[in-house]
Each structure stands twice: as structure tokens, then as C-alpha cells.
């Protein structure tokens, strides 16, 4: 249901007409009460109507072309005019409304002072349907209005005769008028509230949408948290599995029956016990044998690997200088060597060398 509010014309004040799909619902004088959307209707003689074939792809192009036509047909400067462009269907010439910008501003101020912000402003002739031929006439808001295919104006005897000529306007019956008013209010063919006079849309919060977005956000957070928890659980299970595998692997390298508490530490201790302290028995002994082989007429008579990683070598040589050569060979291998006093026994010189890991 929509209320048509007719702007004052002459001595008449505001008049209103409430229309619905069932026809005229109510009428009255003054400003109507209620929350129904209001469509303002401008006086027929205050707006000049034209029809022209204008571009439809771009609204800006259509308005620019309409302003050029208005400038040619109006004596007033185009800068002082408000030009609005409408549409009455595909393939038809488009209606153009021309009114003074000051008049348009005054109407909106008058409506605002009455507490009305109309959803649209329609010239009175545009409330009538477009006839297939000739002209039609109806009384709307206390004013006679005539409409043709490419004409719309107030019904004034001399003007009407001049425009219609030998084709007198046909009166529109009540049922057809009510249907036309309802259609025009629902989908105006020409709305003057365009450009600088377009209705400003107020910002309103859609709390239902806000609640839906909040629920959606909570759902997304819950799913994200669930994914993170599942991932942490998988990581935890994987770590436990790897730890169990490490314990099982360590148990195979440790002495049978030993309790696995710290695989890394226990394996290090086992390695130390197996290979010995320092750099280990095998490494130290191999270096010692290599040095002995490098010194001619030198033989190993005894060997002892101590708990501190030191290797004591008992050696016998033909001369004392060979013992010195052996000591230097071990030092070149990176070991610290302490030599005892070498004693001559027959044709041999014997003594001990203590080899210490670096």
C-alpha cells in the first residue's frame, strides 16, 4: 500500500490518496499519518514533459542528451533546470521531465517541513497510463490531467484544444484509474528525484544479518579450534610413537635386561664403555701401530689401555734415537706422548711411552 501526496497548487493545500492493489483505499486533505511509503505528486503545470529516443546503456549519457534537448526547448539557462529521465519500456521513447532547480528545492523543503521524505516524485500526468493512440483524461488530486503517447499536461480548455486538435481526450474510468495509480506508485515511469535531488539512503543496521554473521564467525572459530586440537593430538600421538620406537631401538643396543630411561644418554655411556675413554681404544691403538711400523727396528713388547684413556706402550729399539722418532711420529698424529727413561739391555734399548688423547 502506497500513499500519493499531492503538492499544493494554487489555493489548495496538501491532498493525499492511499492506493493498493484493490484500488483507492482512502483519501484526505493535509499530510497523512502512518508509516506507508509516500510518493509526492507534482502539479501538472509545473513540470514540462518531453519524449525522445535516448541512449539506454548509460544513465549519464541519457541525462546528458536530455539536457541538450531541454536547453533547446527552454528559454531558461540549462544550469537553472533540473532534468530527469525515465523509461516506459523497451523500444519506446523515454519521458523527460524538466523543472526549475529552485522549484524542485522548494518542493523538497516544503515536504521536509511537513516531516515527509518521499520515496519518489512523479509529475501528475505520469500517473496516467500511456494510451495506444489519442489522449486520455482524468481528475487526480483535484486537478484535471491529460496524457497522450508523447504528451502530458494540465487540462486547460485552450491548451487542451490546441494540443489535441480534432482528437478530444477520452475520460478514464475509475477502475482503470485506480489500477494506473497503483502501478505508477509502485514503479514510476519518471521519478524527479534524480541527480542532486536523489533520495539519500539512511544507514540502518540489519541486526538479523549481524546475528547470522556472528553465528557464522563463531562456527568458523570453533571449526578452526577443532582442527588445531586434532592436529595437536596427531602430533602428540606421532611423538609418542617415535619415542616408543626410539626406546625399542635403544633396547636392542643396550645390554639385555637394562631398563630404558634415557636412550640417548644410555647409548652414549654404552659407547664410552665399549670404545673406551678418550678417543677410544681402537683409535689410539691404531695410531700407535701405525707409528711403530713407520720406525724401522722398533717392536712392541707390551700394551696397556688405562681407564683414563691413556695407552702405555712398552717398546724396544736398536738405539735410543729410534725411541725419539717413535715419540715424534705419535705426536704428529695428534697425541700427547710422555716417554720414560729408556734402558740399554744387550743390543736393545727398551722403555715406555704413554700416549694421551688430545
UniProtKB/TrEMBL annotation:
It is found in: Cell inner membrane. It is a single-pass membrane protein. Its main location: membrane. Residues 207-355 form the GspL periplasmic domain. The chain crosses the membrane at residues 209-230. Keywords: Cell inner membrane, Cell membrane, Membrane, Protein transport, Transmembrane, Transmembrane helix, Transport. It comes from the Bacteria. Residues 38-152 form the GspL cytoplasmic actin-ATPase-like domain. This is General secretion pathway protein GspL.
Amino acid at each position: 500500500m502506497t500513499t500519493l501526496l499531492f503538492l499544493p497548487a494554487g489555493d489548495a493545500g496538501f491532498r493525499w490518496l492511499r492506493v493498493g492493489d484493490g484500488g483507492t483505499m482512502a483519501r484526505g486533505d493535509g499530510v497523512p499519518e502512518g508509516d506507508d511509503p509516500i510518493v509526492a505528486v507534482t502539479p501538472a503545470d509545473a513540470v514540462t514533459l518531453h519524449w525522445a529516443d535516448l541512449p539506454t546503456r548509460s544513465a549519464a549519457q541519457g541525462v546528458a542528451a536530455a539536457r541538450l534537448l531541454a536547453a533547446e526547448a527552454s528559454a531558461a539557462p540549462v544550469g537553472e533546470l533540473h532534468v530527469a529521465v525515465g523509461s516506459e519500456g523497451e523500444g519506446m521513447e523515454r519521458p523527460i521531465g524538466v523543472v526549475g532547480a529552485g522549484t524542485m528545492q522548494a518542493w523538497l523543503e516544503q515536504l521536509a517541513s511537513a516531516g515527509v521524505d518521499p520515496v519518489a516524485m512523479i509529475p501528475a500526468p505520469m500517473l496516467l497510463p500511456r494510451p495506444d493512440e489519442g489522449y486520455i483524461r482524468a481528475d487526480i488530486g483535484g486537478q484535471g490531467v491529460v496524457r497522450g503517447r508523447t504528451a502530458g499536461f494540465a487540462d486547460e480548455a485552450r491548451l487542451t484544444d490546441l494540443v489535441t486538435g480534432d482528437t478530444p481526450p477520452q475520460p478514464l474510468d475509475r477502475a482503470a484509474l485506480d489500477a494506473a495509480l497503483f502501478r505508477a506508485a509502485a514503479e514510476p515511469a519518471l521519478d524527479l528525484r534524480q541527480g542532486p535531488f536523489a533520495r539519500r539512503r539512511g544507514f540502518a543496521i540489519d541486526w538479523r544479518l549481524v546475528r547470522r554473521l556472528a553465528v557464522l564467525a563463531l562456527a568458523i572459530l570453533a571449526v578452526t579450534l577443532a582442527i588445531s586440537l586434532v592436529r595437536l593430538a596427531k602430533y602428540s600421538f606421532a611423538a609418542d610413537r617415535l619415542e616408543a620406537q626410539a626406546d625399542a631401538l635403544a633396547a636392542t643396543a643396550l645390554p639385555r635386561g637394562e631398563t630404558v630411561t634415557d636412550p640417548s644418554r644410555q647409548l652414549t655411556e654404552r659407547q664410552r664403555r665399549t670404545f673406551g675413554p678418550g678417543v677410544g681404544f681402537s683409535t689410539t691403538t691404531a695410531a700407535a701401530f701405525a707409528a711403530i711400523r713407520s720406525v724401522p727396528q722398533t717392536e712392541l713388547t707390551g700394551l696397556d689401555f688405562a681407564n683414563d684413556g691413556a695407552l702405555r706402550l712398552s717398546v724396544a729399539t736398536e738405539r735410543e734415537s729410534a725411541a725419539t722418532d717413535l715419540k715424534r711420529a705419535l705426536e704428529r698424529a695428534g697425541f700427547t706422548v710422555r716417554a720414560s727413561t729408556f734402558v740399554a739391555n744387550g743390543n736393545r734399548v727398551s722403555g715406555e711411552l704413554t700416549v694421551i688423547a688430545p
